[in-house]
């Protein structure tokens, strides 16, 4: 049997602010909160049922947002790719910008099919093509 990806950890200055952004961006919820550490993920997951699900196959990981004193200095080596499921790519980009994202420059040519944004602390992520009915084409 292999390991499962169960959590993603993201260092930041303000876990509460990033939790606010990412829960709104992903339609997730705060699962655990303590000073300097917030866990977010899909809501409604009972611990016993989640453990059974993880043992039987992949599940969506949760995200830990941990306060650290260091600043982000360079482009992320790992980033998230988001795919809109109920709106166009442009509409999703506009929604994420309204939540506090910003456009990010990481050396794009301008010909990409994705849009590079950054969360409120500068962590880059991409908005891919829409998976919404009427927008998605193979």
From TrEMBL:
| Pfam families named in the record | Glyoxalase_6
Q: Which InterPro entries match?
A: Glyas_Bleomycin-R_OHBP_Dase, Glyoxalase_6
Where is the Glyoxalase-like domain positioned along the sequence?
8-128
| PANTHER family for this protein | CONSERVED PROTEIN (PTHR35908:SF1), HYPOTHETICAL FUSION PROTEIN (PTHR35908)
Q: What is this protein's name?
A: VOC family protein
């Amino acid at each position: 049997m292999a390991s499962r990806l169960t959590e993603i950890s993201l260092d930041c200055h303000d876990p509460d602010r990033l939790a606010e952004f990412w829960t709104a961006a992903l339609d997730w919820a705060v699962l655990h909160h303590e000073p300097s550490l917030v866990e977010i993920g899909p809501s409604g997951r009972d611990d016993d049922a989640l453990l059974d699900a993880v043992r039987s196959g992949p599940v969506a990981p949760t995200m830990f947002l941990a306060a650290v004193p260091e600043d982000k200095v360079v482009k992320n080596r790992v980033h998230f790719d988001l795919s809109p499921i109920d709106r166009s790519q442009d509409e999703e980009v506009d929604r994420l910008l309204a939540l506090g994202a910003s456009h990010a420059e990481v050396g794009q040519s301008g010909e990409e099919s994705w849009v590079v944004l950054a969360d409120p602390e500068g962590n880059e992520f991409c908005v891919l093509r829409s998976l919404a009915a009427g927008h998605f084409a193979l």
